[in-house]
Specification:
This protein is an alpha+beta fold. The protein has helices spanning 2-20, 25-29, 32-37, 154-157; strands spanning 70-72, 75-77, 94-101, 104-112, 130-132, 136-140, 146-150, 190-192. The protein has a two-stranded antiparallel ribbon.
Length: 194
């Protein structure tokens, strides 16, 4: 009888040890408990938009999604990140950030930045350079913020004489046509150093 009780306690401790692995970031974002209560097909590939679902019987932290891998910042991802370069596959506006939901910390994941590095008015890229945009020569200021010099001739901007309709080919009368750069700064051409 004592042997059976000892075996039961040993098995219970193994189960509890296995359950404790749910505290890991990945397991919390693809909780087996949540999948058991909510039938979620895991068919969304990395880069697709996603949502995490939780279930009250599984506690407050764990959640699950339809991602093949994991859902963080509403995007399927293969795993946590360590540095901004790990997020380059998702685009230049994605950075490695702390993913916290309702007070629960899930670690570092790729998320879209409110002020992407290398763009006008935002922090410089890790190597101290910035992205040039159309008609902007960009450079990294001493305070590690990207700035730029507008290279379009003033005579082309003043008076709005640029045209691109049926009668013109996109040039100002007598001067090269210039247009304002994209105000979001999210369409960089290439990094440049001062």
């Amino acid at each position: 009888m004592k042997g059976a009780k000892l075996i039961f306690l040993l098995l219970l401790s193994l189960v509890l040890a296995q359950c404790s692995s749910d505290s890991q970031e990945q397991d919390q974002l693809q909780s087996e408990c949540v999948h058991n209560f909510i039938d979620l097909d895991r068919n969304l590939i990395d880069g697709m938009r996603c949502f995490n679902f939780s279930y009250s019987d599984c506690g407050g932290g764990p959640s699950a999604s339809e991602c093949i891998n994991y859902c963080a910042f509403e995007m399927c991802q293969s795993g946590p990140c360590e540095k901004d370069a790990d997020c380059s596959a998702y685009g230049t506006s994605y950075e490695c950030q702390e993913y916290t939901v309702s007070g629960t910390d899930y670690g570092q994941w790729c998320g879209e930045s409110d002020c992407p590095k290398g763009t006008q008015g935002c922090p410089c890229l890790d190597l101290g350079d910035c992205y040039d945009s159309q008609f902007i020569d960009a450079f990294c200021e001493a305070d590690n913020i990207c700035s730029g010099t507008y290279t379009c001739t003033p005579s082309c901007i003043v008076g709005s004489v640029c045209c691109g309709g049926a009668f013109c080919s996109g040039n100002c009368i007598g001067t090269p046509c210039c247009s304002q750069k994209d105000p979001s700064g999210l369409f960089p051409l290439q990094p440049t150093t001062p």
